[in-house]
Model the fold of this input.
Amino acid sequence: DLIGEIMDTLWKFKQLYNDAIFTYQNQLPLCAAENVVSPFSKIMLSSSLQEKYLLGASSTYQENNFLGSSKLFEFNLFLNELCLGLYGAQYADARTLSGINAVTSLLMTLFEEGDIVYISSDEYGGHTSIKKICRRLGIITKYIPYDYNKLDFDYDQLNKALIKESAKGILVCLSDILFQPDLEKIILPKDCILLYDATQTLGLIAGKENKNPFEYFNKSDDNFIMFGAAHKTLPGVTCGLILTNNPLLLQKYEAINPDFLRNTHFHHILSLITTLIEFEKFGNAYSQNIRQMVKDLSKKLLRNGFTLVGDEQYSETHQIWLSFPNQIELDAFFEACCHYGVSVTKREKKIYNDFGIRIGLQEIARYNWEIDIIGTIATILTAIKNNMPSDEITKHVDNFLKAKRTLNYTFSEEQVNQFKQSLHDS
Done:
C-alpha cells in the first residue's frame, strides 16, 4: 500500500543517512577543506526566509522587486557592516552559492572573450577548475610565474609579463597554501584587475592571524577583489563571499543577479551573517589556536622523521604538507590512512616535491579536548608511516575516537537557546 511504500523509502533514507554519519563520526578529520558549523550558525538554516526572493544589486535596492524583499535587502547592509569591521572592505556580497560559483560569476561579469588573465597553476597549488572555467568562457589564461625555492610567486617576472601581454586580470586561486602571497608586490597596470581567492584563509584573515590584503588595497580606485567560500578557516555553511573597496568593480559584478543568478540561498546568507557575528567574538582566539596547533604538530612530525614542505619554516595557514620520496610510499601511506579512518588528501604536484599529503587542522582546532590531541595525531601518523602493527595503530585511533571533545569558540547552549526563543520562527 501507499503507506508501506513511503515507510520503505523513509527506511532506506534513514539507513543511508545513518551510515554516512557513522562513517564521519569514526574519522580523524584532517581534511583541509572541511570544518564543523556551530549550532548558533545552523539556526538560520531552518529560517522561513530561505524561500524568499531578493532581486538586484547587493548595494542598492531594486524597486521592481518582490513584495517584502526590502526587508531582506537590509541584511545586505548588515553584512557590509560586519565585513567592514572584520576585513576592512566597504562592500560585501554573499549572493553566490559557493567559492567556485563566486569565481565563475566574477569572470563572467568582469571579463570578455579574448581577455588575457594570469592564473595560478595547479602544480604549485592552484585550483584545478580555474583553467577549465576560463576556457569555456573564452578567456585566455597564462600561468603566474612561480619561485619554488621561495614558495611564492616571482613578482618581477609577473609585473613585466602583465605589461607585455596587456593582461586584463590576475586570478590568484590557491587550494594548497602554506604562506599567503605578497600581493602588495604586484604592480597592477591600468584596467588590470587582481582577484584573490581567500577561501582557505578567510577565517585566519578575519582572526588577524594572516595579513589582510585590504591593508594594502584600501583605496576606492584599487582594482582589487577578495572572495572565497565561507566553510574552511571561516567555519560557516557553504556560501560565496565577495569583498572590495572599489565601487566601479562593485557595479560590474553586481550584474551577477539577475544576469547569471536569480534566487539565492538566503538561509545560507543569514547563516553566514551569524557566523561572522560569532567570529567577531571568538575568531581571534580560534585563529590563534589553529596557528599554534599547526606549529606544534609540525615540530612533532619533523622530529618523528617526516619531510615537510617548507621544513622548519612553519606553515602560516591551517595546512601542513607532508612530502614522500616516491609514488609507492605515498600510495602506501594514503591507503593506510583511508583504512584507519584518517581523512587526508593525496597530492601529486611539483610543490609537494611530486608526492605529498595535505592535512588541515581547522576542524581539530574547533574543539576542546580531554587528551593531548596534537600528540595523539602525531603518534597515529607516525605509526602509519613506520608501518607499525595494525592493532597498535587501531588502538591509537580508538583512543582518539573515545576522547571527549567539546565544540569551542562559539556561544553556549544556553545563549543559543535564548537567541532561538527570541526569533519569530521559533
Observations:
- The chain has a mean pLDDT of 95.
- The chain has 14 helices and 17 strands.
- Residues 259 and 270 are 23 Å apart (CA to CA).
